[in-house]
Specification:
Helix content: 25-40%
CATH class of the largest domain: Alpha Beta
CATH architecture of the largest domain: 3-Layer(aba) Sandwich
Strand order of the largest sheet: 3-2-1-6-4-5
Radius of gyration: 26 Å
Largest sheet: 6 strands, mixed
Order of helices and strands: HEEEHEHEEEHEEHEHHEHHEEEEHH
Number of strands: 15
CATH topology of the largest domain: Rossmann fold
Amino acid sequence: MSMACHLFGAVTNPMSQSVVEGFSVMERAVELTKNGESFVMATVVWRQGPSSGHSGSRAIITQDGKLFGWIGGACAEPVLIREAKKVMESGKAQLIWLGQEADFKGMHVPDGVMTVPMACQSEGALQIYVEPIAAAPHVVIVGRSPMAVTLHQLIKTLDWRVELIDLNDFEPDAFTSRSVVVVATQGHGDEEAAEIALKVKPAYLGVVASRKRGLAVLGYLKDRGFSDSDTGKIYIPAGLDLGHTSHREVAVAILAQLVQLRSTGIFEQSATAPATKLLPLLEVAEAIDLVCGMTVTADKSNRPFDYEGTTYYFCAPGCRVAFEKDPTSFINQEAKC
């Protein structure tokens, strides 16, 4: 394998290795989902040898910018992390084609495919499908009314994380600012439950009540010092307005409203959620290896070399040694570009 780049090279039993690594990645995906954390899944869908990435190889990029799994080596990882950030922010999947710049000349590239020329010293190419995986919403239903039980059953069919709890067990630590709270006490503690929820400011707060009853709840909250801005975010009555309906239809109306709001991204945009689950994918400092042209992360792992007040980074020892021998030639070449 070339010392200049670890993206391409021989792998013993690649298919077996890919399957084992794939299981580990999927286990991590399940763990993140249970913890309510969004992430990006990257899957190699095509390769051109020689390449250490193989069809079916998978990796996860978490919201703090960490990569778990394997899709390739030093050439591919910085590009993948950078593009994963864009996918996380846009919420739209992307197919990325990594290869030598010459590979793309005269080549028909399908619409929607992003080509990324790689300046690695060895040959090979990868196509990686990068998709955002949004965490399932966390829903807390307060109350044990028939409607609350029905709503709990409906939400479970969507594989969302849902809890049905009594008012006496409803405490601020039972949910976060990214949670969905539905107060379904129906006249038996509406005000108290809404007050507890409003202090945490969940992504959604709905109260199952008539409009007249809802005005009484809002009046109570204002008397308790909550502003119009705070109370204006409460959905009273909760759910889409379907007119006079049965308790089962009310449950469907609430679920429909939650599905509708989730599609807008509101559950991922709450500004007060825990930092570990709300921060966008961290920016990764990058640099260009002036010897081979490869993009590398600007950290200690990529052989930093200081020259005339500027720090340069290199993908492999060979590139750094070449630069040390004649820095100005590579710097001047970059300046011409």
